[in-house]
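note to self — DONT lose this again. spent like an hour looking for the file last time. sequence + predicted structure for the chain T wanted, 181 res
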Amino acid sequence: MNFKRIATSLAVSAVMVNFIPLAIAKEKTVMVGGAAMYPTKNIVENAVKSKDHTTLVAAVKAASLVDTLQGPGPYTVFAPTNAAFGKLPKGTVATLVKPENKQTLTKILTYHVVPGRLTADQLMDGQKLITVEGETLTVKKSGGKVMIVDAKGGAATVTIADVLQSNGVIHVVNQVLMPSS
């Protein structure tokens, strides 16, 4: 027997065994709405799993934005929860998802989307963000919190930051952001 060959073969095998866990390392996930959000999945694939975002998902479908948010992006999405939509005046969501209000719904939803992938550490106090809708959001940082201020002065607090997606990043917010018109 050639002990040198066996030792070399064992050493190579040990390296390969140690390499495998790195090659198939478990994805780092963030829990949102009781579901794991996977960074290898796109915005829509992850959002549909969150029980806290069923209203947002229904609105995205009603506005025909699914294909866009499944596209390559990258996008930064400030994603209001069901509770955030619940803070709107009674009947607002039901009215917005009607086909005749698609343009208004689309305007509101695209106001929550910024081109590019902006993580929380890239959002600076006072920073102006131009949304896909075309208007501006303002970042406010205070006491370790990140807030997004809309055109009407309403402020949404980021409750879960940096939910990485294959085509961008989601920041969960506790208010619906409203454009100026």
